[in-house]
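Quick one:
INPUT:
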């Protein structure tokens, strides 16, 4: 932010040495106040796993001591304080409750304008944008950074839940993912199988749990795979299961014969009864 300052010298006033010195000092002070600094952060998101320590880099250019400046790290609003340094000390009383005791301003290079923020025990709720903001007098500047939180969940657990529509219903479950994963059922050729049902929910920690079912038919190849993938990390975990043919519901030939013969006999009986009348 730049403050405009103007100076007026009367035409009738004769310049004097003290006046010239005062004017030069005023112009120099104005130049210093109006000087702009840039705040520099990473161009790419900072990627950190759940439970790990995140370091968000931030520095001034040109390199300038920030010991006497206000350094504010905040989220979506100026008042959503993640960490505040003012008056030469940290101000923990200004922080949002969820960051109390979890942040640290790295001051080793504060004299050269570097004030990276360390966040301990990263949570899914820490995911998103942060602003690194400096203020020195009437001059202020900031920059946006993004923290990308990730978590690879558990290996898929596959179980048979019973017979359905002439096949076997298989359910794939996996927990502890962030962000939301993609879940696929595939046959032995790698072709996708249409899911019978899909459930995705988060636990109290904000991690995603997946539960996706599929119905495997007897005429299909019984080797099937459940794959749970993190699209951001481009990593997946899989579980493959082979279903023996005798587990599929079978119709006895006698049952087929009865299904054909009984309706015919009923028709014959009804016709005979009608003729007898």
């Amino acid at each position: 932010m730049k403050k405009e300052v103007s100076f007026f010298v009367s035409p009738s006033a004769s310049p004097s040495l003290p006046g010239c010195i005062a004017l030069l000092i005023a112009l120099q002070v104005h130049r210093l106040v109006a000087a702009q600094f840039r705040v520099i952060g990473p161009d790419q998101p900072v990627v950190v796993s759940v439970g790990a320590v995140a370091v968000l880099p931030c520095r001034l250019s040109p390199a300038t001591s920030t010991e006497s400046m206000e350094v504010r790290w905040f989220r979506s609003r100026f008042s959503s304080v993640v960490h505040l340094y003012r008056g030469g000390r940290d101000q923990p009383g200004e922080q949002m409750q969820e960051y109390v005791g979890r942040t640290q301003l790295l001051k080793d290079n504060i004299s050269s304008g570097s004030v990276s923020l360390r966040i301990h025990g990263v949570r899914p709720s820490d995911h998103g944008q942060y602003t690194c903001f400096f203020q020195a007098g009437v001059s202020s500047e900031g920059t946006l950074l993004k923290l990308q939180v990730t978590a690879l969940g558990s290996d898929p657990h596959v179980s048979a839940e019973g017979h359905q529509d002439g096949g076997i219903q298989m359910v794939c479950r996996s927990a502890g993912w962030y962000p939301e994963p993609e879940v696929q059922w595939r046959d032995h050729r790698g072709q996708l199988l249409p899911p019978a049902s899909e459930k995705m929910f988060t636990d109290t920690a904000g991690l995603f749990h997946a539960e996706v079912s599929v119905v495997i038919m007897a005429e299909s190849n019984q080797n099937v795979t459940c794959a749970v993938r993190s699209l951001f990390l481009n990593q997946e975990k899989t579980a493959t299961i082979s279903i023996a043919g005798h587990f599929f519901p079978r119709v006895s030939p006698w049952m087929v014969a009865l299904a054909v013969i009984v309706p015919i006999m009923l028709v014959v009986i009804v016709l005979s009864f009608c003729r007898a009348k």
